[in-house]
Design goal:
2 copies of one chain form a homodimer.
Chain A (H helix, E strand, L loop, with lengths): L2 H5 L7 H15 L7 E2 L1 H8 L3 H14 L2 E3 L5 E3 L4 H25 L2 H19 L6 H15 L3 H18 L6 H19 L3 H20 L4
Helix pairs in contact in A: 2-4, 5-7, 5-8, 5-9, 5-10, 6-7, 6-9, 7-8, 9-10
The first copy, chain A, binds a DNA duplex through helix 4.
Keywords (chains A, B): DNA-binding, Transcription, Transcription regulation
Protein name (chains A, B): GntR family transcriptional regulator
InterPro entries (chains A, B): AsnC-type_HTH_dom (IPR000485), GntR_C (IPR011711), TF_FadR/GntR_C (IPR008920), Tscrpt_reg_HTH_GntR (IPR000524), WH-like_DNA-bd_sf (IPR036388), WH_DNA-bd_sf (IPR036390)
DNA sequence: CACCCCTTCATCGTATGCGATATGCCCGGG
DNA sequence: CCCGGGCATATCGCATACGATGAAGGGGTG
């Protein structure tokens, strides 16, 4: 039964998988910006592979909603619609509230330590004002939390939604004060997890997402 | 800004898209059962196309989590892990509660009529005991409801989660009494929507998913 | 001078073919 | 009788090549 899970982690990665990982990371990091054109032939030449692995990677990205392709007119990185962001945050609030409640019930000490390690790194990065690593660490925090909830599907949903938020956030400049608030709210979630208090954890997680939503989409209307 | 949305509905469908639709439908209907092997060469011969469109379709299905592929050892329809189903239902409860609440605030009369039409069809199918169309209609119901919430992302999440449930449900025989309960609970959701009562709609939707979860995963442990 | 059509080009979509590799069977040894 | 190694085969992964189609620019005409 766990076999199906391991099967999704291919031991040997095909070239298409490597291209997929590369492009996905580039989109997540903002190296490929929304609306930017992707030329498949050029990409194939640059990476030293043929178009086929490129096409397969692009198809997967399209299924993920990260790129859009119009026939015979190129592939572009998907736009993040500001109006949709509100829906994304609402979904995150629902899912991460659920996740935090479940995690409080069943989180192991090892995973709690892992979460605290991520939190510690975020504090360090904030202290040295090296902000560029913070989005990745923030993703790690939410991913570890979601994994602690015990259901793979919840981790996947969390990852998927947070990626959209990261892509949207690229369009706005870094804001140190916001990161300080994020880290403080993460601390509250961790505190509730330490007490194994599902109700408080869910409340803290929902408040965290809600506050972030206010920060990111309030000025859009 | 809405352009990006329309771009995801390609006007002209490539062969890869047709193969994708075909396979996805076959998996949803249960014609391709979990664990079943998919031979790409054979599929290419049967459909009269080369392997390339097949491969691209399979890559998209893999991104959707509907198939798993191990290198040089074939592609199989993904197993639906019974333990994961509990997580899927928890996620659905969170998302569809949110969806129903939003829908109650902003549903149009036209869309409400659409929802009632689906409900009417389900009643008809139950009356004539033609159960095989009910899963599809049930998907329609939840899809229309999610679209009424106004955020594309919520509709996509709903669709994705419900597809997993449908695939799991294939493994168990049809149960007329269960469909009667489903339809009754749908009616309660519709009633709350008619009154434009977000709180009641959310409560009814959550109760609906929760009851279904009890029905489908209770006997698994 | 403006508009339209036609040609040209760039880019996508797909077929074919070959190399790589995991799987399963068969045979020999313990 | 059971187990391990080697070979045949099926299947996948990728490169090359060609056809199809939308986009853009230039020239001609009203």
């Amino acid at each position: 039964m766990t076999q199906a899970n391991w099967a999704r982690l291919p031991v040997v990665k095909s070239k298409a998988d490597l291209v997929y990982d590369s492009l996905r990371a580039a989109i997540a990091e903002g190296d490929l910006k929304p609306g930017e054109r992707i030329n498949m032939d050029e990409l194939a030449r640059n990476l030293g592979v043929s178009k086929i692995p490129i096409r397969e990677a692009v198809k997967r990205l399209e299924a993920d909603g990260l790129v859009v392709s119009r026939v015979h007119s190129g592939v572009t990185v998907a736009q993040v619609d500001a109006a949709e962001m509100r829906g994304v945050f609402l979904a995150r609030e629902a899912i991460e509230g659920l996740v935090a409640g479940l995690a409080a019930e069943r989180i192991t000490d090892a995973r709690l330590a892992e979460l605290e390690a991520v939190q510690q790194q975020m504090r360090g990065r904030l202290g040295t004002r090296s902000f560029q690593k913070l989005p990745e660490l923030n993703s790690d925090f939410h991913r570890v939390l979601a994994e602690a909830a015990g259901y793979r599907v919840l981790a996947e949903l969390t990852d998927q939604l947070l990626l959209t938020v990261r892509r949207h956030r690229i369009t706005v400049p870094a804001d140190p004060e916001n990161w300080a608030r994020v880290i403080a709210e993460h601390e509250e979630i961790i505190a509730a997890l330490r007490r194994r208090d599902p109700e408080a954890a869910a409340r803290a997680a929902k408040a965290h997402i809600s506050a972030q939503a206010d920060h990111e989409v309030a000025d859009q209307e």
